[in-house]
Amino acid sequence: MSDVDEADKNIAIWKMKNLIKELEAARGNGTSMISLIIPPRDQISRVTKMLEDEFETTSKMKSRVNRQYVLGAITSAQQRLMRYNKVPPNGLVIYTGTILTDDGKKEKKVTKDFEPFKPIKDSLYLCDNKFHTEAVSELLESDDMFGFIIMDVNGTLFGTLSGNTREVVHKFTEDLPMKHGRGKQSGFPFAAFHMEKRHKYVRKTAELATQLYINPATGQSNLKS
């Protein structure tokens, strides 16, 4: 990543942090606030149809005041969605609804739509008295990927960790003999046998770790960051 790209990314992260802080502080009456998250491979047409169905269902709500709030929020989401011919490469996030001002005495309408700075995996549609920013907040977690190895007498597991996402890369089982043999296996011969098995097990684990985590061409880690 070039210095310019890195700077642009840092600016995008800074803007998103401030936006999330603003959204998390907002509160509304009833279920007047809509959180809509559309992942990259979704279709605008599907979400448009979903909002139309939600509008029809909401029209039958008994509470007139809450019905008006939700219908207004759905309409705002529909209007904002019309600006997009397709879902952006990183997905689309829309927050809209009627919120209370800081003193809690007045109301104001707010609509925020944006493409995250990196792909968002979640799909979400919620009406509530607050905006749900959990999925967007997760994008701010570290991109760094770490490799980890769990090894015991029964086998070894190789994995990666990035943020809250863990993935098993490879695993294999092992059957190491007990440290102390029984009967004819006891004594020095068995101890030597045990040490040899242990040495082979450790060497196998080290060789696999090199294959899984190190780029042979560069000798550097192949974990993405």
From TrEMBL:
Q: Where is the eRF1/Pelota-like N-terminal domain?
A: 4-141
Q: Does the keyword DNA-binding apply?
A: no
Q: Which UniProt keywords apply?
A: Growth regulation, Protein biosynthesis
Is this entry keyworded Protein biosynthesis? yes
The family database entries (Pfam families) matched by this protein are listed as: eRF1_1, eRF1_2
State one molecular function term (GO). translation release factor activity
Q: Which Gene3D superfamilies match?
A: eRF1 domain 1, eRF1 domain 2
Name the InterPro entries for this protein.
eFR1_2_sf, eRF1_1_sf, eRF1_2, eRF1_Pelota-like_N, Peptide_chain-rel_eRF1/aRF1
Function (record text): Directs the termination of nascent peptide synthesis (translation) in response to the termination codons UAA, UAG and UGA. Modulates plant growth and development.
The UniProt entry's sequence similarity note says: Belongs to the eukaryotic release factor 1 family.
What is the protein's name according to its record? eRF1/Pelota-like N-terminal domain-containing protein
Q: Which organism is it from?
A: Lactuca saligna (Willowleaf lettuce)
